[in-house]
Amino acid sequence: MRTIIEPFRIKTVEPLRMTTHEERERILKDAHYNPFKIPARDVLIDLLTDSGTGAMSSLQWAAMMRGDESYAGADSFYEFESVVQDLTGFEHILPTHQGRAAERILFELVGGDGKVVPNNNHFDTTRANIEHSGARAVDLVIEEGRHPEIRHPFKGNMDIEALEALIDEVGVANVPIVMVTITDNSDGGQPVSLENLRAVRAVCDRHGIPLFLDACRFAENAWFIKMREDGQAERTVKEIVRDTFALADGATISAKKDGLVNIGGILLLRDEALAERADALLILTEGYVTYGGLAGRDLEAMAQGLREVVDEDYLSYRIRSTAYLGEKLMEIGYPIVEPPGGHAIYIDAGRTCDHIPPEQFPGQALVCALYMEAGIRGVEIGSVMFGGGEEPPALELVRLAIPRRVYTQSHIDYVIEASAAVFERRHELPGLRMTNAPPVLRHFTARFDVIPRVAEAAG
Ligand SMILES: *Cc1c(COP(=O)(O)O)cnc(C)c1O
Question: Which ranges in 229-311 belong to alpha helices (H)?
């Protein structure tokens, strides 16, 4: 088989700034060993997130000039609405500025004290919005999804028995909706099968509970279904996307992922009465119903992005390039969450740096080492992000997220080479001490120091 190439050529370039080892040493120290505090200009390859960091196409940029900035009833809204309707089949389409704005509106309507919302794995903003409403968020991914080293084609699937048991335990009246996240971001970008979605739907139907999707990566999920699920190989991604949305009563979407834009979100609803109440909340905090906190040009870019994301050459390249990074890291010896997911590779830093205990943040140590080595920025998903409670999180991970259509294969090869150099001296990496721990969402602003004795040993 031939190399799967980037199915685009470059029309505009953005120069990258090279830094020296000495500069990076100072930059990292000034950032208190927290990559969120490193100015982006000092980062060479930025794998912090795939959210809103993608490159737009020439057609998206052209569409932005068409943006109709009328306050109400702009052409750009109708264009956006017709594209989303065609792709998803939903009647009520509310634009929002990000995914979390859609979540905030949804859970103000269906959440509240005593309510319980099951999901395969709640993304952090989803969980935060559910808890903010007074409700409880429960993760019910299948057992395989809880073990990084176990391979399963649809590791994001919901545990159907656990879902039934939860509904029995808390009572139907307390479960306002069931949610499924596609792909399962918090579990390594793992897909959910159509078969599993149908089984969740059947449970929901039996109990009369609406099913909602957190559908940020609906196109990547559909590609995995086409590649891995029986009977789906000959179908188009667009057909699979339509089938997926047809199973749901609503969805929240961050368009900063598969919308291929830098800002935007969508709330999708079928129920007329619920949509009317959502419209009222949208107007209260986001904006009028035909722009929802976005400019007309943003709606145009989203409409065009949603057309492009179901292109199968794009998806083939996208998923292959993520797998390529994962396979090469495994060849080097890195334990990763297997198999590689859609949008990111998750390195098991706890196992990579098994000399660093969780309270010295092995994930953060590895993130710092990758930056020091070559100016690569990843993010810790472990004791920095989720620690501070009674129990340390189950895994100490480092996520390398791949922005869409931004980096070429040689950029990724460079990441692989730098990762190999870091792997060689993984047992010399120093642990860190948190010198300032903010009470909430501490990973964004926490400060660290290198633990001195080990720092000297590492030179
Ligand atoms: C990014 C993301 C969100 C939140 O979207 P924002 O646009 O960042 O507000 C919700 N769920 C999942 C699975 C996501 O990846």
Answer: 237-246, 272-285, 296-308
Q: Domains for the chain: give ranges and CATH numbers.
A: 21-50+311-458 (3.90.1150.10), 58-308 (3.40.640.10)
pLDDT digits (tens, 9 = 90+) for 316-370: 999 999 999 999 999 999 999 999 999 999 999 999 999 999 999 999 999 999 9
**pLDDT band for position 440 (cuts 50, 70, 90):** confident
DSSP state letter for 286 = T
Which whole number is the average pLDDT over 203-224? 98
Mean pLDDT, to the nearest integer, of 80-96?
98
Residue pair 258/220 in contact (Cβ under 8 Å)? The answer is yes
**Closest Cα to residue 126, out of 265, 225, 220, 249?**
265
**What is the CB neighbour count within 10 angstroms for residue 243?**
17
Residue 452 in this model has a pLDDT that exceeds 80: no
Ligand 1 binding pocket, CB closer than 6 Å: 51, 98-100, 123, 125-126, 181, 185, 214, 216, 254, 256-257, 265
Residue 459: per-residue pLDDT: 46
Give, for ligand 1, the residue of 119, 125, 402 to mutate: max count of ligand atoms closer than 8 Å to Cβ: 125
Amino acid at 219: A
Work out the percent of the chain whose per-residue pLDDT is above 90. Answer: 91
CB atoms inside a 10 Å sphere around CB 311: 15
* CA of residue 181 to ligand 1 center, whole Å: 10
* Residue 344 CA, ligand 1 centroid: distance in Å: 14
- Which of 130, 139, 216, 267 has most ligand 1 atoms within 8 Å of its beta carbon, as the pocket-test mutant? 216
Q: Which residue has the tokens 């909706």?
A: 177
